[in-house]
Design goal:
single chain, alpha+beta, Arc Repressor Mutant, subunit A, OB fold (Dihydrolipoamide Acetyltransferase, E2P), 6 domains, five-stranded mixed beta barrel, five-stranded mixed barrel, 35 strands, 26% strand
């Protein structure tokens, strides 16, 4: 019996002789006979499984090689310390996708992580067999699943109404519906048919029925690939977790810490208590305790729970559901700071002077018991003189000292001068079917501000402690506005006769001053909108460049480890730095902090987009029955294409095309953030209050189209000349008269 050829020899022969495209041809070439045939077939099968050969019908050929620069997808379940990836696009006829080892040295400028899509430089090695390694050049945003839509049955069969407003409807043949029914949210594949290459959809999966299930959030969850089902291994691990004991912890069960949360909160990850400082050298001072759920005690690095929490990055909050970062056994049970139950905590004790300045702080791993579960309105009512059965007994011993400490902290906050953009946040109330019943702006209470100030103080203390210990950590950073955005802001403010600082080092107090001036001049809406757009986006980073909005030199997220992976990393860093246990930050985590920061910043942006899109869809459903109705709104954005208008009562956003505005020829004047009529000078500026009529609703896309009923402000058309402007064609004269007539009705 002879010897089998090597893998390298087979690939070399196929490269040199392209006609060797079948088992028989290869066997003849290498003289394979008799008993050698079976092991030779096994070898070819192994090479196919390893990705070196591809089989199509009876042909065998070499797999294609990867180009020098390739887009790769890293699996979400990849080992963070031994990353691998696969080509993002691959022709299945070429066989199994090649596995690529992703090199991730500690000093790399781009640090990818599990779940990332990367643009990478490929090295195939020096041998005959490609051994692919890759170095990441850039982390790319993954495209959303665009082929998702709602099935609508009609006389001809069915059509797909896309959830993405940029996509067009497609037909679905009856035989391609699978088990989908009218109203179902489905995933489809698209194929081109006929000589005209008309796209048609074929259902490949039924996701659910958003209307009957009361889950409009399903659309965002699936279109943005948000993981919402926990793998069995993760749930098994969570269920097996035992309760933590007092061993290795300080006993704080004598301290009457309380939780203060929204009335509908399901998990409680922070508790607070304050008392006067009895120290003689700190007259009028306060001692503030902040206890945070000790998630690190249950979610250990490298476990199935940890890997899943990392992939999710954070919890995602929708009006109709929460997609949690951790299973309920952890988030709503073992780590939820329930009233009267022993709970493990990583806590900070802060000593403040009478002016709210922090004199010292220390971190402790403790066991404590929440003295009361309160909501914001309940705690505020007690302070305002309306205690109930729960707050009455703790009013003097717990709530008044908390408010006294907050009074000092708020004075310190005012002196620090963080950015004061107090924009209202609307809350959507759903009915029993998961649709909008009401929209309102909750009252902003001192109870909210108290918790915020104490959480900010605890976050600062965490960053300071880790810096002092020379420990690696994840910072929460917020860059100062770019020079380009500041120049645009100055131009806009000049058009309102408001001045802004020209100092090279702009501070939040500079923005606060111009906001105060705008408030006095009755222009606060316009200015607030532009100031908000001037700000950079906050993110996570392994390197510190401060938090501009809070006006803090160092800041970390420590107070919400149930719902943010960043906070869990900070907890582990504190445990390791202070010697508080064996479950602290590992060397492997430290080496990939940059990649962790990039990943969780990305999942945070994904969550924000999903929440915003879901609110848009819910509000579009809510308004669908009010076509033709008149609403009051405010211009929230201006482009050369038209105006974005936000309704005052619901906060719903819609669009007014520039082509429908009126009889003039409108130009976009960038420095004024306005559309200005060439002849009339009629001006529609960001922040202007307007009346609109609802003309069109696309509920699944969350899109509204309005007709403007209000006249614009009267300006000087000559102001358009010499400005940075873009043309926006208005309507015909008769169309313009229709707008004015509609306003009069």
């Amino acid at each position: 019996m002879g010897t089998l050829p090597s893998r390298e020899a087979i690939l070399e022969a196929m490269a040199r002789y392209p006609d060797l495209d079948g088992k028989r041809d290869l066997a003849r070439h290498f003289g394979i006979k008799g008993d050698m045939r079976t092991p030779f077939k096994v070898l070819l099968k192994e090479m196919e499984g390893e990705g070196f050969l591809a089989r199509t019908r009876k042909q065998i050929r070499r797999t294609a090689t990867l180009p020098a620069v390739t887009v790769l997808d890293i699996p979400t379940d990849a080992d963070p310390e031994d990353l691998h990836a696969f080509p993002a696009q691959w022709n299945d006829e070429e066989g199994e996708r090649p596995r690529v080892v992703v090199l991730n040295p500690p000093d790399a400028r781009v640090a990818p992580a599990p779940g990332d899509r990367i643009l990478a430089r490929i090295d195939a090695g020096d041998g005959e067999l490609p051994h692919y390694t890759a170095k990441a050049m850039k982390i790319l945003d993954k495209p959303r699943r665009g082929q998702i839509g709602i099935v609508r049955m009609d006389e001809e069969g069915a059509r797909l109404v896309p959830v993405d407003r940029k996509q067009k409807e497609m037909r679905i043949d009856r035989g391609d519906l699978a088990s989908a029914a009218d109203g179902d949210l489905v995933e489809v594949e698209v194929r081109m048919t006929g000589r005209l290459m008309i796209p048609k959809a074929r259902v490949v999966g039924v996701i659910g029925n958003p209307k009957s299930e009361g889950a409009v959030s399903l659309i965002a969850i699936h279109s943005l690939d948000i993981p919402y089902r926990f793998p069995a291994a993760v749930l098994k691990e969570a269920e097996a977790a035992p309760e933590t004991s007092l061993k290795g912890r300080e006993d704080w069960r004598h301290l009457p810490l309380v939780t203060i949360d929204p009335f509908d909160a399901k998990d409680h990850d922070d508790a607070v208590f304050a008392e006067p400082d009895e120290s003689a050298d700190n007259p009028g001072g306060h001692v503030v305790y902040v206890a945070i759920a000790d998630v690190a005690a249950y979610v250990r690095a490298g476990t199935a729970l940890d890997r899943e929490a990392y992939v999710r990055g954070n919890s995602v909050y929708f009006p109709d559901r929460v997609v949690p970062m951790l299973p309920e056994r952890i988030s709503n049970d073992l780590c939820s700071l329930r009233e009267g139950e022993n709970r493990p905590s990583l806590a900070v004790r802060m000593v403040l002077d009478q002016h709210g300045r922090k004199r010292s702080h220390s971190f402790h791993r403790v066991l404590f018991r929440s003295a009361a579960k309160l909501n914001y309105q309940q705690a505020q009512a007690a302070i305002d003189g309306r205690p109930d059965d729960k707050t009455g007994p703790i009013l003097d011993a717990v709530l008044r000292p908390l408010w006294a400490a907050y009074g000092a902290m708020s004075r310190a906050r005012d002196k620090r001068g963080p950015l004061d953009l107090d924009l209202p946040e609307r809350k959507i109330i759903l009915d029993g079917k998961g649709m909008v019943a009401d929209v309102h702006v909750p009252e902003r209470l001192d109870a909210h501000r108290l918790i915020e100030e104490m959480m900010i103080a605890a976050n600062v203390a965490a960053a300071e402690t880790l810096e002092r210990a020379r420990s690696a950590l994840l910072y929460r950073v917020h860059d100062s506005p770019s020079e380009e955005k500041l120049a645009g802001l100055r131009d806009f403010l000049a058009s309102l006769d408001l001045a802004f600082s020209r100092s090279e080092a702009v501070r939040p107090t500079d923005f606060n001053r111009v906001l105060d001036k705008a408030r006095e001049a009755g222009k606060i809406q316009q200015v607030s909108e532009i100031v908000l757009r001037t700000q950079a986006q906050a993110e996570y980073a392994a390197d510190n460049y401060g938090h501009f909005g809070l006006n803090l030199d160092r800041y970390a997220h420590f107070t919400s480890p149930i719902r943010r992976y960043a906070d869990l990393i900070v907890h582990r860093a504190l445990i390791a730095a202070l010697g508080l246990g064996e479950d602290g930050l590992t060397e492997g985590e430290i080496a990939r902090l940059q990649g962790i920061a990039q990943h969780i910043s990305s999942t945070e942006r994904r969550a924000m987009l999903a929440e915003r899109e879901t609110v848009d869809r819910l509000l579009a459903h809510f308004l669908a029955e009010r076509l033709g109705s008149r609403f009051e709104g405010r211009i929230s954005g201006v482009t050369k294409s038209g105006l974005f208008v936000r309704l005052l009562d619901t906060g719903a956003d819609g669009f007014v095309p520039a082509s429908t505005l009126g009889m003039d020829y409108y130009r976009f004047v960038e420095e004024q953030q306005a559309l200005v009529g060439d002849q009339s000078g009629e001006t529609f500026r960001i922040g202007d209050q307007v009346s609109v009529r609802l003309l069109e609703v696309a509920p699944m896309a969350g899109a509204l189209r309005f007709e403007l009923l209000s006249e614009g402000g009267r300006g000087d058309p000559s102001s358009v000349r010499g400005s940075r402007k873009s043309p926006s064609r208005g309507r015909s004269k008769s169309a313009g008269h229709r707008r004015h007539a509609g306003r009069a009705r």
